[in-house]
Amino acid sequence: MQPISFRGGEERTPDPKPRWNPRPEQIRILEAIFNSGMVNPPREEIPRIRMRLQEYDQVGDANFFYWFQNRKSRSKNKLRTGH
Amino acid sequence: MQPISFRGGEERTPDPKPRWNPRPEQIRILEAIFNSGMVNPPREEIPRIRMRLQEYDQVGDANFFYWFQNRKSRSKNKLRTGH
DNA sequence: AGTCTATGAATGAAAG
DNA sequence: CTTTCATTCATAGACT
């Protein structure tokens, strides 16, 4: 399943790929969305969520897509000892 | 009194977690497992490995996960400019 | 004591 | 979705 194509097919440019650093405000919003039950935001919701987060910083579609992926996966596996 | 250090003016998750201190016996066992070819033990093996190492100290699943992750990753690069 | 270095921990990004 | 890779942060321990 490939929800969104983030790389536009084949890679060609050696994109620098700076790592997105979510601020606490953004994390708070994302956590709120996640805890509201929307663990897999539908495609139509993405622009809406992005606009909401862009008040604090520029975020791409892939950024929070990955965020939700990791959030769900890691909360399920309960890999952390504490937290 | 919480000496949470700042990161260039941006606060990070104020999470005071004690870090696991592997003992020589544990490291010896882990290295043995690693050198036996099991560089990335499957999730199912981790509890087994943990039980084996718990003879020496309490360890969580995440500890091994991180250990193997770091061990594998850093065995390739002989460490960059330490941080 | 301060400084390095090694490494545990965390997580974004990506691969499978 | 699951698993792996890469980068980063924090800090214990070694060294000076």
TrEMBL record, chains A, B:
Residues 13-78 form the Homeobox domain. Residues 8-18 have a biased composition (Basic and acidic residues). The keyword Nucleus applies. SUPFAM superfamilies: Homeodomain-like (SSF46689). One of its GO terms (cellular component) is nucleus. It holds the Pfam family Homeodomain. Residues 1-23 are annotated as: Disordered. GO terms for molecular function: DNA binding; DNA-binding transcription factor activity. The keyword Transmembrane helix does not apply. Its main location: nucleus. It is found in: Nucleus. Residues 15-79 bind DNA. GO terms for biological process: plant organ formation; regulation of developmental process; system development. Keywords: Developmental protein, DNA-binding, Homeobox, Nucleus, Transcription, Transcription regulation. InterPro entries: HD (IPR001356), Homeodomain-like_sf (IPR009057), WOX8/9-like (IPR044557). Belongs to the WUS homeobox family. Probable transcription factor required to initiate organ founder cells in a lateral domain of shoot meristems. Involved in leaf formation. This is Homeobox domain-containing protein. It comes from Zea mays.
